[in-house]
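Human:
Take a look at this sequence-structure pair and walk me through the tokens.
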Amino acid sequence: MSFVHQKKVTLFDVINYTLLAIISAMSLFPFLYVLSVSLTHRSVYIPYALRLFPEKWSLGAYAYILSSNSFENALQSTVFITAVGALLNIAFTFTMAYGLTERKLPHRRWIYGLVVFSLVFSAGIIPSFLLVKELGLMNSYWALIIPVLTNSWSLIVVKSFMNSLPVEVIESAKIDGCNELGTFFRIILPLSKPALAAFVLFFAVSHWNTYFNALLYLTDAKKWTLQVLVKSMVLDNSAKTIGMEASIGDASPPSETVRSASIVLSILPILVVYPFLQKHFVKGVMIGSVKG
């Protein structure tokens, strides 16, 4: 006969969960408001009216944005930067981290010391800008990818994760005749799936949300990323200032609904992808931080 021990609910638990629920609701409120505005029909839209549910629903603002060349160009730019950037980030981060785990690597301690040093001290904006300019990467997507192929924090976490992998399995592969590349692709990467999922999400979100570097290096409006486009729509207070001159019927939707719809569209892909990677994401981060 088994007895299930039930934890006694204390006053602290009640207060704690209540505060967390309030904070969660406050965090969710702005998103619900933006979503509500974006779905409000132009005939019932009232500027700055506080409504969490539209009085009359409409997808006019979304159709208006999706029919414009500006949004299509920005979406293509962002998808390219995110896909290529995340893939190269994974390739450079995991290969370098694996190299740093090899004790026979010449000057391994010095190289790792430089990685830690760059974690604390960075060159800054001006040297980075001059470097990109001298490399001829201005107004190029590669200006947003090459300078950030990897970073110190990612290298340290991935290296710690790889150090936690069973040494016996790696040594057995080498005894069986696997070279370094074979060991990396056949042993290290399959065992690193949680870390791979976590850092794919890290890098993809970082590239998807890139704003400052895109604003700094991309001078052609046709190459703008989604975040730069949304910024222009929100701050310029008019969608027409960036070339969105398509119309729905005989009139365009209110500019506020268009801006809200653009914000929703810019964050929707990450919200859709994250739940599928959440389990691996949490596992990968915890393994790399605890066992490292």
About this structure: Residues 230 and 263 are 6 Å apart (CA to CA). The radius of gyration is 24 Å. The first helix runs from residue 11 to 38.
